[in-house]
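#struct-help
A.M.: can someone run this one for me? Single chain, 139 residues.
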Amino acid sequence: MFQTARETLRKSLTRFRNRQFLDATMAATALVATADGEVTFSELNALDSVLDSVQDLQIYDPHVAVDIYRDFADGIDRDAEAGKAAAIAAIRKIAGDADAAEHVLRVAVAISKADGDLSQVEAEVITELCDVTETDRAF
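D.P.: on it. Structure tokens below:
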């Protein structure tokens, strides 16, 4: 599962070499990781594995990606409504690009399944991300 997410992000970053894509990916992972109120070790481990691809590609400093993720996750923890709105705004910026949106969603799904369980609330976040990115829910 982690390899799939990592490979998806690696291919995506190679293709979508822009900060908007990285922001959207980190925002989506923060939303699903915090959805059930607890960021599990498995989810953090999956995120770490995914971020290895950022380092491998030398497109962005992986610390930048971690900082982006933390900013979104901390924002959600501090003020759920405002933090979620900021994450959604970052994700909405890729809504016009179906390929980028699908790649972001694939990484988000992999993170949400990292603990072996896709909870109802995580599934609802994925559904909302599909709506925000104008992506078919069956992607």
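A.M.: thanks! Residues 41-57 form the longest helix (17 residues).
D.P.: also worth noting: The chain has seven helices and no strands.
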